[in-house]
Batch of 2 targets.
Target 1
Amino acid sequence: MIFRRIAVIGLGLLGGSVGLAVAENLPGCTTTGFDADPEVRRRAAIRGLVSRVCETAAEAVAEAELVIFCVPVGAMGAAASAIAGALPKDALVSDVGSSKAAVTEALRAALPGAIVVPAHPVAGTERSGPDAGFAHLFRHRWCILTPPDDADPAAVSRLAAFWEALGANVEIMDAAHHDLVLAVTSHIPHLIAYTIVGTASDLEDVTRSEVIKYSAGGFRDFTRIAASDPVMWRDVFLTNRDAVLEMLGRFTEDLTALQRAIRRGDGAALHDLFTRTRDIRRSIVEQGQDDARPDFGRSDHED
Amino acid sequence: MIFRRIAVIGLGLLGGSVGLAVAENLPGCTTTGFDADPEVRRRAAIRGLVSRVCETAAEAVAEAELVIFCVPVGAMGAAASAIAGALPKDALVSDVGSSKAAVTEALRAALPGAIVVPAHPVAGTERSGPDAGFAHLFRHRWCILTPPDDADPAAVSRLAAFWEALGANVEIMDAAHHDLVLAVTSHIPHLIAYTIVGTASDLEDVTRSEVIKYSAGGFRDFTRIAASDPVMWRDVFLTNRDAVLEMLGRFTEDLTALQRAIRRGDGAALHDLFTRTRDIRRSIVEQGQDDARPDFGRSDHED
């Protein structure tokens, strides 16, 4: 048994999925859970996201061997402070946040002396809240652990075994490097999607109804990403600011070059880029990180 | 019977899907097809994309009541010139191109006196070629007709009935307005997706392998779009240049504002935008232009 008692703080998409995944994959392990929102606690109890929903975070962690914070990254510090007095001495503290350097700092500052091994399961959907989670969310997805330099190797191994039990592939990485990688593979794509959806909804010469009707041409994929949880993403951009701005600078340089190619009618430059980008897609499908079916079954050609 | 004999010029994703959709929805209608690439003609014959694959475009259109050009928009003029001598006088000429003002001009210049009613079914996948098409591609998707001012209303109605028979909803629009609307809902999303995928594959501090592994965080949706046919998209940007540059200008203004909000740590501005963008998503799902299932069944939580 990797852990016998796990506390999940925050019962939205991620926290709920952790609870359900533990129930499915680690029989005999009991989970306690807490969410600051009473309505979320109520839904969590109804859906059985954890073995026991607690009325306070302190109660939830009181006997935990592993505590996982599943709150927006900007709320990690406060959530950790709230359990500081109740945390068992040998408990392992982790999280699921999308930016890691800032979270590591916040957790360690709030819980001096605690065993902290931050983690980021790279998985999610555009849905959020206690009704959004499902047990298989982490299956075949990568979970990145970012242990501080002084982390106990045994604690890191134990947390890796936990995520593997939930179906994830585990990778270990420096927090700063994680933040740079995820700025590219996740944060900038979200920022761009939010922007274009915002741009499209503010036009005067194209109505919102037209944008919605003709979204099948590509736009709708951006709206899915841009429907993600606003608080979670606000916090990601505020806590991973430097890496996001760095990558955004490179993106806008490339976009400016493409804009110039269009203005000049440079078809060769366009064709060259549009050909190169196909390779990455192929690799992603080959490595099982996406589905190659046309339209992912979104069109109804299979009915 | 709307049309008894239909010629499809170009047998890739769109042309192949038109042929298959006609076979399924218009029994008794025969289709002829041509593609400039002999290998595509061979595959088209094997898959039965049309009733008869012809060795020349002239042969394909010789007895057609409707000719649909399904070639990249930059190739429309040449493809139309190739059939100019063989086109029956009363045949209706149309296409499926993604930019409409330029295509209208090219078709009318190549086929003076012909009945030309351009069309754009807003449907597609990232796959291309003769093996990519399927009969249900157009079902519940919008098809925009952009008849010139002097178009015969009877010809427009007939073409509308044709697309409705294939399962599409039909809308009629001015070509210039179409080009502006599609710049937002399709061309700019593709341009952005191609750019970010290109940016990500050229980084020195983040490896390509890392980009692929952690693509589930949002990036993979962009790679799907950026795997679309390079020639088709090169031509779209070259032929819809003004509308694309106009919309790109608005997008980069908005992106710059968001960049400033991140730099200044203005969480309220970020949260405000991230909340507004959720509404559009809801409308798209409500109107049946996308699927609300988490991850569209891409994750394997349904297995």
Target 2
Amino acid sequence: MAVYTEVPDNEMAAFVAGYGIGDLLSAKGIAEGVSNSNFLLHTTQGFYILTLYEERVCADDLPFFIGLMEHLAQRGLICPQPLRTGDGAAVGRLAGRPAAIVTFLDGLSVRRPTVAHCGEVGRGLALLHEAGRDFGMQRANVLSVPGWRPLAEQAGAEADTVLPGLSKRIFAEIEAHERNWPQGLPSGIIHADLFPNNVFFIKDQLSGLIDFYFACTDAFAYDLAICLNSWCFEADASFNLTKGQALLAGYESVRPLEAAEVAALPALCRGSALRFLLTRLVDWLNVPEGAFVKPLDPLEYDRKLAFHQRVSDAREYGLRR
Amino acid sequence: MAVYTEVPDNEMAAFVAGYGIGDLLSAKGIAEGVSNSNFLLHTTQGFYILTLYEERVCADDLPFFIGLMEHLAQRGLICPQPLRTGDGAAVGRLAGRPAAIVTFLDGLSVRRPTVAHCGEVGRGLALLHEAGRDFGMQRANVLSVPGWRPLAEQAGAEADTVLPGLSKRIFAEIEAHERNWPQGLPSGIIHADLFPNNVFFIKDQLSGLIDFYFACTDAFAYDLAICLNSWCFEADASFNLTKGQALLAGYESVRPLEAAEVAALPALCRGSALRFLLTRLVDWLNVPEGAFVKPLDPLEYDRKLAFHQRVSDAREYGLRR
């Protein structure tokens, strides 16, 4: 959560004018999104979100992200809808960065999800997978198995300064996945980062999904594994089976899992826990001088990984069969 | 700019419900205000700002700040208007802190004020002084002359790590003010922190004043001196006389200065430059571990102070007489 970029006077008003949404009345830097600078705009026509894309988002991927949000919104999914200028461009440049304006979504993200929230997000995730089926673009998941070894090497022996023995355990885990990663599962558009801070609720009802900047083409069940990791553990790293049941039942109420997905779920949960352990570890070891952002604890995902390593059947996550 | 406090689930919705402004639909942490946590709220009735008061604001002063904003708004000044619960309370508690909700104001703060902006803010400052005349409460300016020596002692010899010789110059300046500080000037409610980030504009017209948490009872001309410091210098610490002329003319179009105020202006400008030099210096030397906030450069105010030390007549600030 951070505003990284300060936008010079007048430049913002001129940028907004291009989108034909009236005159700019207010712009507040908001603490939302980890990788980008976001501003909540008020114009004479309404409220909008302005995003300035910082380095971490590759400019070449923006047409995919923008196109995906447009596609999903057209399919009825509640997500930010990109605006286009009179020339038809969604992405422009502001303060030296690619920038876009999307619609403002109501809703509050929950810090401590309840069972009801887990059911809602399971259902929402399946709706997202269904809505993305006929989207024409593809994007490889750069943070799947082939991306893990380079991350582990980037952290290197320093990982052991965070927790003794961590480096060795990480490489062993990577090796196991490189040999046995599930193949040929039903695939399509996945969100790949549907943590509680990216899901909005109004009175326990899901009201929108945001932050599609990790979205890619990968196995649907991998997305589900990411959600099991980020929604169904308690603060002490214990797994809440009732939440798992709700999330999986919510998902299957829209899109029932195939047998191969059920069989793969423990491996996918391990892999996705490893993925967040690795990226958090690299961030943890590379906090820039004078950073505004507190890095997230990598060991939260080491503890979750340890849980998954002892799981052998998807029923242990609450899948009803 | 920072959001310091994270508010637990449901607590915020319950807090908002007490104010009778409908159901909470959205709450975004915003980068506004230096000392407090601010959230932009959307409810079924409109947009509001929720402020959580952090340590730096003394809870005992809140009735003064809240009462002042209500008073000024009733007198027609555009400033945040505090809301009250059914019980008549403006300040409640949220996440262990005093908290209040005020109306949302449109407008953009300018990073590089133009001459036109300076004229507007001069006029706005005088309107604030006039609107505060019949406000019944008082609050001493704890950051005036008696507060400077303790700040300088807090910085101590460490000041010289920022710039060699700074400590000695500061104590000499304090001594000069302790002997000769202007007395008996027209006084009343002053904002005491009317920097560009606390003034909103829509298309070059002043649309509102915010952040009254340094407001106190002191000489009106001292407030004007603070504005000359914060609005009329260029980034290289050169004084822009045209901006000074506009600011002073704007002020006098509402409230002409008395002869004693004119005579005191150079001393007041020196004093107010010293006040911001001192608080910034203490902040600079005391950045907490893991801070989210980048401290402001104290030497900006050392350079401004040096300018004022060579001024002997208010006409050098652009006062037309």
